[in-house]
């Protein structure tokens, strides 16, 4: 018995979704590098749409070498914004109105804004195994 | 206690004059109603505040249309979209029906036996909320 159009469509989409999920599970350095340069944005009620890119490992190494708290904050803001705003210089951060810099620091301090770390889905992906269970 | 299990799916079937012609996934509604508001002198409160002309827009992630009906849908033939419950026991569950819907803002690709429209949108003449 032939399938109805709705059944055909549902099966087609389920098959495509399953293939997409499998593709997403594969570790692909090229895609990861593309993601590092992808311009993202945070919609803030005070500052409006703030464009940024995620911090790279190299950025973290740079920040780690900075001992002074203020310089580290200035550098963090610059590293987050400079790919999205190519004309921005690090010195420009000092000329930002204080409330803008303060607000950016508040946004940076909230992990939901710039530093979203993908979590494993409780319903979809397999749970991360603990060190002890991997060893056993 | 809040029931956290969604009873309404965002997927559904598409029909033309009662004949099933396809399937749609990820439907979201974007309903609008104009506001009719009138003021009079000596008062800053509206004397008339009514809901006016309505539109029933919607968006969807993917839509599959059987080859036989693809041209009709792409050319603007009106369809009915029926969104059913997410679970398999429909009795008493909500049923959303978008009537006289036209599909626009779409690109499409060929699949075996049909076409797939991705990230499309459309507008219907009415939305009825009922139950199975």
Question: How would you sum up this structure, described in words?
Answer:
The complex is a heterodimer of chains A (136) and B (132). With 136 residues, chain A is mainly alpha-helical. Chain A has a domain of 71 residues. Helix content of chain A is 52%, strand content 7%. A two-stranded antiparallel sheet of chain A has the order 1-2. In chain A, a hairpin with a 3-residue loop joins strand 1 and strand 2. The radius of gyration of chain A is 21 Å and the shape is elongated. The relative contact order of chain A is 0.09. The C terminus of chain A is likely disordered. Chain B has 132 residues and is mainly beta. Chain B has 1 helix and 9 strands. In chain B, strands 1-2-4-8-6-5 form a 6-stranded antiparallel barrel. Chain B is elongated. Chain B starts with 7 loop residues before the first strand and ends with a strand. The mean pLDDT of chain B is 86. The interface between A and B is medium-sized, with 9 and 19 residues.
The Rg value of chain A, from CA coordinates, equals 21 Å
Overall 3D form of chain B: elongated
Quick one: how many beta strands of chain A? 2
Structural class of chain B: mainly beta
Amino- and carboxy-terminal Cα gap of chain B: 24 Å
Approximately what portion of the residues of chain B adopt beta-strand conformation? over 45%
Low-pLDDT windows of residues of chain A = 121-136
Q: Largest inter-chain interface? A: A-B, 9 and 19 residues
SSE string of chain A: HHEEHHHHH
Largest sheet of chain B: 6 strands, antiparallel, barrel
Name the strands of the widest sheet of chain A in spatial order. Answer: 1-2
Radius of gyration of chain B: 18 Å
What is the tally of helical segments of chain B? 1
* Major beta-sheet overview of chain A: 2 strands, antiparallel
Please count the beta strands of chain B (DSSP E, at least 2 residues each). Answer: 9
């Amino acid at each position: 018995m032939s399938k109805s159009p709705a059944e055909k469509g549902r099966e087609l989409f389920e098959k495509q979704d399953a293939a997409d999920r499998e593709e997403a599970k594969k570790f692909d350095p090229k895609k990861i590098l593309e993601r590092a340069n992808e311009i993202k944005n945070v919609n803030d009620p005070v500052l409006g749409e703030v464009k940024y890119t995620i911090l790279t490992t190299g950025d973290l190494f740079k920040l780690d070498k900075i001992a002074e708290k203020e310089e580290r904050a200035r550098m963090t803001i610059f590293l987050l914004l400079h790919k999205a705003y190519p004309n921005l210089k690090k010195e420009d951060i000092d000329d930002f109105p204080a409330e803008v810099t303060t607000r950016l620091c508040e946004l940076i301090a909230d992990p939901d804004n710039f530093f979203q770390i993908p979590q494993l889905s409780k319903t979809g992906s397999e749970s991360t195994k603990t060190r002890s269970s991997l060893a056993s | 206690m809040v029931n956290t299990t969604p009873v309404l799916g965002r997927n559904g079937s598409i029909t033309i004059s009662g004949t099933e012609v396809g399937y749609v996934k990820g439907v979201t509604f974007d309903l609008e109603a104009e506001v009719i508001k009138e003021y009079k002198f000596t008062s800053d409160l509206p004397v008339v505040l009514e809901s006016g002309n309505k539109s029933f827009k919607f968006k969807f992630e993917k839509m599959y249309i059987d080859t036989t009906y693809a041209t009709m849908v792409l050319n603007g033939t009106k369809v009915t979209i029926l969104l059913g419950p997410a679970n398999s026991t429909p009795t008493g569950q909500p049923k959303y029906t978008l009537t006289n819907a036209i599909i626009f803002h779409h690109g499409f690709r060929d699949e075996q036996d049909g076409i797939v429209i991705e990230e499309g949108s459309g507008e219907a003449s009415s939305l009825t909320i009922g139950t199975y």
